[in-house]
């Protein structure tokens, strides 16, 4: 039997229980356990702790475990495995009201969090004109006045937070490389001065991520995660993701990706994203093999595919095709030998909800506008405020509440759900805004079918 947790992978830290137990304390199974079975054995996942138990059907203890697991209550002295299962959150004291305890803990963290997450747009211009892009490219590089205000915000945050995270977004953020250099350098200096944990990431089309820029990003800007979108093999990518002039981009992006894969820097990951429509869907396996040839067994590489959406000139996938895509992506990644990114994202309780629902996360445009979501800048409710010259966020509290007010109390089904700690009824707060008719006490939240998704991802992570 193998028991491990996301903490073992350096992703999260489990909460330490403060409830004292004795040898006579009875335990029960956690509501947030999720079990998948196959011919290979059993995988048990706890959505609150992120812990995973793997037990092979060939293990001599397999049938004994199955027998024990059918019990309703346990004493930890019943078997040598049980203390480890309690430590990882699979078993909890019988008298514990786990749902109330979790919801109270979650709400407390929302109020008293000690981190700040800023998604920064150094420019809203882009060198690409992707067929499905939703951005208007109206605002250019961040002015010195906005940069100064941003520095004041960062300095003020340093007095109250312990973790500071920046994600560079756009437009194409590398078109605003001077802004990135300035704000990164300032942020890192402030973090060092105040003893704050500093992390950074970047979403880029990869065209300007030359070897020189990549090395600067890792060494000087401390980028720990890159996301690069490539929409399939050359012909299909160049149809969808070309320069403003219409010239192709595939060869340059792939050349830059090859350098990233060959680099020796240990402390970053890079994610290759493929946006899929009905015309390039059939290329998924071919493209996965191409990416595998580039990244080999590089443990830093991740891959995932998403359905294209928005105003694409190509035909978008139906809801049935989206579900089929998810199954195919899991199967292909397992057979090709690519590390699928989705388990890192959707099986991580530390993520726990969409960034747009996080009251400590803000998107700041190059002109100082403050948003909550990066997927629809034209949505009126998305513009929640402005960055003031003194570094404060002048926020519209009504609009902000549409995104960050907790929805758990509104949906009884969510409170009973086995995967509540992975979404907190906040998978996509935009759906509550765009489809307000779905928001009613006791109603069904307009979210994806998480349970089926998690079954697939747990198998993919094996």
Explain this structure to me?
By secondary structure, the protein is an alpha/beta fold. Helix content is about 35%, strand content about 20%. It contains 16 helices and 17 strands. The strands form three sheets. It has a ten-stranded mixed beta sheet. A four-stranded antiparallel beta sheet has the order 1-5-4-3, covered by helices on one side. A three-stranded antiparallel beta sheet has the order 6-2-7. A hairpin with a 5-residue loop joins strand 4 and strand 5. Helix 10 runs parallel beside helix 16. The longest helix is centred in the middle third of the chain and has 18 residues. The radius of gyration is 23 Å and the shape is globular.
Tell me the number of strands. Answer: 17
Approximate strand percentage: 15-25%
- Give the strand order, joined by hyphens, for the main sheet: 13-12-11-10-9-8-14-15-16-17
Low-confidence stretches: 4-19
Mean pLDDT, all residues? 88
Task: Round the Cα radius of gyration to an integer and report it.
Answer: 23 Å
Helix content: 25-40%
Number of helices: 16
Shape: globular
What is the assembly state of the chains in this entry?
Answer: single chain
Span between termini: 14 Å
Structural class by helix and strand composition: alpha/beta
Biggest sheet record: 10 strands, mixed
């Amino acid at each position: 039997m193998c028991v491990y947790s996301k903490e073992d992978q350096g992703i999260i830290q489990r909460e330490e229980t403060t409830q004292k137990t004795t040898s006579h304390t009875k335990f029960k199974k956690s509501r947030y356990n999720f079990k998948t079975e196959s011919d290979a054995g059993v995988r048990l996942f706890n959505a609150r702790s992120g812990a995973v138990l793997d037990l092979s059907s060939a293990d001599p203890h397999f049938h004994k475990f199955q027998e024990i697991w059918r019990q309703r209550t346990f004493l930890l002295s019943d078997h040598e495995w049980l203390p480890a299962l309690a430590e990882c959150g699979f078993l909890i004291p019988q008298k514990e009201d786990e749902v109330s305890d979790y919801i109270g803990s979650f709400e407390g963290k929302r109020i008293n969090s000690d981190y700040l997450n800023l998604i920064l747009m150094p420019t809203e211009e882009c060198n690409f004109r992707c067929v499905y892009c939703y951005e208007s490219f109206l605002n250019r590089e961040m002015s010195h006045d906005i940069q100064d205000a941003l520095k004041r915000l960062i300095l003020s945050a340093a007095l109250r937070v312990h973790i500071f995270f920046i994600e560079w977004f756009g437009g194409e953020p590398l078109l605003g490389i001077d802004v990135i250099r300035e704000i990164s350098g300032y942020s890192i200096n402030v973090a060092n001065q105040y003893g704050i944990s500093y992390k950074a990431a970047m979403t880029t089309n990869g065209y300007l991520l030359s070897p020189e820029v990549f090395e600067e990003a890792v060494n000087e800007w401390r980028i720990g995660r890159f996301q690069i979108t490539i929409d399939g093999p050359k012909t299909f990518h160049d149809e969808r993701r070309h320069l403003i002039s219409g010239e192709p981009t595939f060869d340059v992006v792939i050349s830059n990706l090859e350098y990233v894969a060959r680099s020796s820097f240990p402390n970053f990951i890079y994610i290759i994203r493929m946006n899929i429509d009905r015309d390039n869907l059939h290329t998924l396996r071919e493209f996965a093999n191409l990416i595998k040839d580039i990244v080999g067994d590089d443990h830093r590489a991740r891959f995932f595919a998403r359905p294209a959406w928005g105003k694409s000139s190509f035909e978008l996938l139906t809801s049935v095709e989206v579900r089929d895509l998810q199954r195919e992506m899991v199967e292909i990644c397992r057979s090709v030998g690519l590390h699928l990114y989705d388990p890192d994202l959707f099986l991580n309780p530390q993520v726990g909800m969409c960034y747009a629902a996080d009251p400590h996360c803000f998107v700041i445009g190059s002109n100082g506008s403050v948003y909550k979501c990066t997927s629809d800048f034209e949505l009126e409710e998305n513009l929640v405020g402005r960055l003031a010259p003194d570094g404060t966020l002048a926020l519209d509290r009504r609009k902000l509440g549409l995104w960050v007010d907790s929805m758990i109390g509104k949906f009884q089904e969510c409170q009973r759900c086995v995967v509540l700690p992975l979404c907190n009824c906040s998978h996509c707060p935009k759906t509550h805004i765009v489809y307000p008719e779905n928001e009613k006490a006791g109603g069904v939240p307009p979210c994806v079918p998480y349970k089926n998704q998690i079954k697939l991802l747990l198998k993919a992570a094996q």
